[in-house]
Amino acid sequence: MSLTDQSAFDIAHKIQRGELAAVDVLDAALERIAAVDGRPGALDYGPLTQEDQTKVHAFITLTADRARQKAERVDARISSGEDAGALAGVPITIKDLFCLKGVPTTAASRILSNFVAPYTATAIERLEDAGAVVLGKVNMDEFAYGSSNESSAFKPTTRNPWDLTRVPGGSSGGSAAAVASGQGCLSVGTDTGGSIRQPAAYCGVVGLKPTYGRISRYGVIAFASSLDCPGPLARNVRDAALMLSVMAGADTRDSTAVRLPVPDYLAGIDRGVKGMRIGLSKDYLQISYPDPDTGETIMEDLPAEIRNMTLRAAETLAAEGAEIVENVPMPNSIYGIPAYFVISRVEASSNLHRFDGVKYGYRARASGGDLAELYRLTRAEGFGLEPKLRVLMGMYMSGGQLSLQYFQRALQARSMIRADFETAFDPDGPYRLDVLLTPTAPTPAFKMGDFYGDSTLMQYSDQLTVSANHAGVPALSIPGGLSAEGLPMGLQLIGPDFAEATLFRAGYAFEQATADADWRAVKPCVLAEVE
Amino acid sequence: MRDEISPEIFAKLADLAAFRFNPEEAEYLRMELNQQLKAIRQLETLALDVDVPLVPRGVTYTAESRPPLRPDVWVPFENPEEILNQAPEVEDGYLIVPDIPHRELD
Asked: Does the predicted interface ipTM exceed a cut of 0.85?
């Protein structure tokens, strides 16, 4: 097993004790990247080659020299007896939506392809202060608008390490694929409608959308500001907890970052689930979507293997002492995607107006016209189709009477979704849940090209994750098993505000209880060649 | 809520958003927007007069969790050159743009 396949927790401890050198861990990570990743995403990528189809393509920018300096600094601190931090020498990757001073920050868009961040996002600053070694920036859907990574302007886009003909999910697909294939132990993503949890589920890793405001958004390129949550991706629950402990906390540079104390998420993670009330909801075992022709809502049961995985997980947790509460009503979850179509587009539209070819980023060459013409040409050439769609829809729904019809109803739906969760978690209510257990995604990873271009159906892959974003509550995706085709399936644990520690406890208990399961021994196909 | 985005409305939106499309792009995007509207129409089943609070985000901020307002003081960036260097065209510390159009507002 390569050093980079060890857990972040173990690597950090071994480095802190002087049993491992950070530069050796870095070398192992770089060796893995060289073996499995192939050429990084680029704007001028040319034709896709046979070899491209055998690689993961998680990276846009590899920062190997910078990483070596950081790793050497960690080793120097250890040698001089200093505390090198909770993540000493742990190699990590960053979704290319986070600013990192002196490093290109593209949002996977042509319009930011030449932007070099002049400052570092708070979450990244904290990780580096804790000794983490940043390997580079990884691919994503353009501006985080998508669920498959296929909308990135930087190609080849990321492939799923379990099946290279499939998508890694999105928008944090590069993050999930990197972690799954051992290109670093951890990655930082963002989750606006499921963008950490859905790719985590597709790639068989752990991903957390924390409570809104738990992690600062300073230095993160905004998508939908009332929904965006940075969060960790890791290969196990303990590593995700360790990472959150480092990233979370108040930040004077983000007025939505709460000033509540950050618990030690590792303390008590192994306390088990005895006495914990874990809910199941039929509303999360079905999916609804509009008929493409008539627009009528179609309601279907989830695929049997996804339902069965969820029910088996409930049985596992019950055997560990949890009390399973069935039939918890979450009736307003069906409004999650329609409301998201409205709220996220209105906010995205507002956030994208700043990209104009004047202050930073791409500018169209010699328009020959006036400033308005420069704006049009720059935005026409700089944005891909998905950002354009989101801006147009956001503007449409912001206008006059339509704002009342659409936006107000969407906000109302958000409040009603929130009320569902408040009822479920109310300690004096009928259900008194600690955790709601659901599948993370309606299906395992789909084939590249299956949905790209159909922006409506693509959005519905987030149907089981988006309600937690509306409600602001934390939600953790953990591997729950493999499908008949050998693809990872994800379980989602949702809790009340700031109950991340409870989610980690439940997730860790499930991990321990299934540690010897056959499916745990199966690894992503790209690792077969390097082992 | 039976609105549909017509080619005329689409053109207006594109103008407001400062976009420019070729006809194929415009038609594809318009069709996609109208497909999305079908999904959004599910919100029609919500009555507008239901008494639920409309909040700016899901999480409720309390006195304990809400960050205090920052003092309203100027904090200079350590190296403004790094920010200005990101601009496509700068001269003597000013951003350079083409002629700014003037038009009468309706």
From this structure: yes
